[in-house]
Amino acid sequence: MKRTPATSDASADIVPLFEFTKVVNSTLDLPFILGTLLLTIMGRLMVGKAAVLLRRPDGTFCVEYGKGVRPNLLGTSFTITRSAPTAFAVPDAALYAPLRNNGIARLFPIRSRDDVIGYCGVGANPRTPMTADHVRFIETLINISAAAIEKGMAFDALKDVNRQLDGRVQQLKTLFELGKDFSGILEREQLVRLFTLTLMGQVGTNRFAICLKEGESIFSRIPAEALEPAREEICSLVDAPLLASEVPAGKPYTRLRRLLAEERISALVPLQMQSEVKGVLCLGDRLRGGPYTASDLEYIYSLANLAFVSLENVRLFTDAVERKRLENELLIAREIQQRLLPREVPAVPSFDIAASNISSKQVGGDYYDIVPAPEGEFLLVIADVSGKGTPASLLMANLQATVHALVPFALELPAATARINDLIYRNTGTDKFITFFWGALAPATRRFRYVNAGHNHPFLLRADGTVERLSDGGIILGIMPSLVPYAQGTVELRSGDTMVLFTDGVSEAMNAEGNDYTEERLERFLRSVSGKSASETHAAVVAEIQAYSAGAPQSDDITLMVVKAL
């Protein structure tokens, strides 16, 4: 009979706790979970102030939710280094002053799987001191809520990722649309006008300057005479998107920092061709205020370089027309095309690479590239546009611009190939298509991921004498929409293995009798030169093709890339 009251009190606690458990575990809404936890604690202890601090990725604890506290406490971060297993009084240290000033007296750790994911701060009741029963009650509530809080945090993080992904997808769609618009403009002033409107609408600024390393710079609402003296200094400094506030301090850059401040320039974005900085986009303040974020700069970099490739194409085309006075349209297009190809092969760790494009008398649509990509990888690209002359070279230029615009987004190869195919399909006629092969080479692991879109199957000559063909992929670019996903192939390049990428100008080279060289003959020849370096193999194949076709005009571009694993 003496234990009856205690039993009744226990029952009185169990029922609310059972209801509380059902409530907090029935939702992923983090604010609702935190609000329910605080209101339950405040109601039991009769206190008017409580808050929840949750751990951020950087290890700090931020006040995410509060009841009875001032609004300015929300969002405040704390570095809590102590790892007390139980509740502790808020210390007198200056670090905790915002909590003490808001009446938070004690912090209870929120643990999940022996890891502190946050703290629950509880105010004091001057009339009723906190008892051991109160502490046990609060700790019980927190233990019940911990899993729900962690799930809510994960759900919020997932929503943030989805929002970011949606934003990236929208940005990518915008880049594809703008790529179509930019590539269709051949007048510089019209292109600059479209770029200005794009910056206003997509970025939120109407003040910019394009400082070119060589040639006349392009300015919009920023006085030319103000930035012209610092043009060389700006172009030599910027090799990656940079906030004006990040320009190095010190005597060499004192004048530049002052100039950027006077002209209200907030960010500097490099404009690149073939991994070489050709100019810098100087951006004024945002119309809606606030600094440019890292995501903003990444998008602007892709947008600006997409426009700059078109602008550079326009400039090259105009210069060529001025020099040649339209004497030969094919020669002009040929010069533009050659400038879009790599001027030199970049150094790739653990690999020896040799590549070249030998143009025929007419301008063709062959394209190859070696592009540094995120995560230390390198994109190896080879393609052949159908047809000849200026249309083929312009389509090749559009392909080159699209590939370079996609690199910063680090998309998976099958998805990126589908994007390129849909862009080409929408913007070209049924008689235009592209055979396309590209892959991501990871020097650290020697893995090569690739997609073959209807291109000649590259040869992979193993050191043990076996030969493989790289065929995984899908349809030719531009024939039809991407109804079936592209397949991705993966190979590991071991020491001594050689990979040979080529266009049909190699296998279909004709001799004086009009007979093709054929891929079978190419395979036999590659076996005969196995063991040679990339440059030696490359030179041997070119010499073989030229000897075979001696006495006959070169009918097509000869594009060849040899990759040797060291």
Structure description:
There is one protein chain. The protein is α+β, with helices and mostly antiparallel strands. It folds into 3 domains: 11-157, Beta-Lactamase; 184-313, 2-Layer Sandwich (Beta-Lactamase), CATH 3.30.450.40; 345-565, 4-Layer Sandwich (Phosphatase 2c, domain 1). Helices cover 42% and strands 22% of the residues. It has 15 helices and 22 strands. It has a 6-stranded antiparallel β-sheet. Strands 13, 14, 15, 16, 19 and 20 form a 6-stranded mixed β-sheet that branches. A 5-stranded antiparallel β-sheet has the order 8-7-11-10-9. Strand 15 (434-442) and strand 16 (447-453) form a beta hairpin. Helix 5 packs antiparallel against helix 9 (294-324), helix 9 runs antiparallel to helix 10 (329-340) and helix 10 packs parallel to helix 11 (389-406). The protein is elongated.
Question: What is the topology?
Answer:
Elements: H1 4-24, H2 30-45, E1 50-55, E2 61-67, E3 77-78, E4 88-89, H3 97-101, E5 104-112, E6 115-123, H4 132-183, H5 188-203, E7 208-212, E8 218-220, H6 224-227, H7 231-237, E9 242-243, H8 254-262, E10 265-273, E11 276-284, H9 294-324, H10 329-340, E12 351-358, E13 366-372, E14 378-385, H11 389-406, H12 413-427, E15 434-442, E16 447-453, E17 459-461, E18 467-469, E19 473-474, E20 489-492, E21 498-502, H13 504-507, H14 519-528, H15 534-548, E22 558-565
Parallel strand pairs: 16-19
Antiparallel strand pairs: 1-2, 1-6, 2-3, 4-5, 5-6, 7-8, 7-11, 9-10, 10-11, 12-22, 13-14, 14-15, 15-16, 16-20, 17-18, 17-21, 21-22
